[in-house]
Amino acid sequence: MVMGVFITKVFIKKFFTYIGMGVLYFLTSILVIVRNIIKGIHLTVVHSILFMVKVAERIYSLGETNYGICEVCFTRYQSPIYVCPYCKVGYHALAPTVKGFFSIRCSCGHKLPVTTWGRRKFKTLCTECGNEVKYTKVPIVTIPIMGGANAGKTTFINNHMKSDAKRVGNLTTFIERFQGRVTKFMLFDTLGSDFSDSHSLKKYQYYSYNNGFIFIIDPFVTARLLIVSTQPPNYMLSDILDTLILYLQKNQGLKPGETVNKPIAFVITKTDLLAESEGTIENNEERFLRENGEELFLNKLKRTFSNYKFFCEGKDPKTQKQQVVSWITSESVH
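-> structure tokens emitted (334 positions)
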């Protein structure tokens, strides 16, 4: 009988122990579920707020560019380096996150705004060369101007510079309204000596992100006129074109036989210096080149470029320039 009582007590003890453990596990499960629900609600609220902040940023910057171009090294960047105005520490990225919807705390202790409208207060630097860059709201059109030495590239730009244009080194920038929208234009005057080797063009980053090309043709470098020239240049038109094509094949993935869709304008300059016997070149540029021994040049450009147009410098260079730049810009936005 004593044994029976002992067994009963042990059974009762284990029974209540299991009951207690079950209740404990149940309560723990409830607490975990409640905690996860609260955490889920918290994360939902946090990400909802973050989403709304980012939507507000999109609306605030609607129609603005989402990139910039350094006017010193010509690097195209999505986000510059933002400099803390207090300790001068640079941040490669400032954006709303779950750790800060509107601001973060710098290592110096000051709060730094991270929204689009807040970041514009900072000094910004180029991610590549470290030079100061300015924020640009308007769309940017970039056009490299190529051609051999003394072909007339710089003259072409100088003849058509607007009064408010800025020229620094081989870069000319100006603001102009295009199709009802204010646009920033960047024209790059590439040195003629750099067309001796396709590798030389690699240092000019604008050859990878431009909107189109302007190819300046010196009529006195055509095969026939080159023979009678008293001071013949050390290049031919096809040499410059070959350099560009080789660059595109080596660095832009252009395959043999593949065509380039970017617009390219071929501008014949110095037409006022040609003898009257040459006749009017305007609207007959291809015929002029063919009759002056540039059949090879024409064949190469037609095989490589699907979107090209000929122009020439007439009596009104300003009008000619507007036609060239406007044509490239309009073709590049299609």
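The domain at 140-332 is CATH 3.40.50.300 (Rossmann fold).
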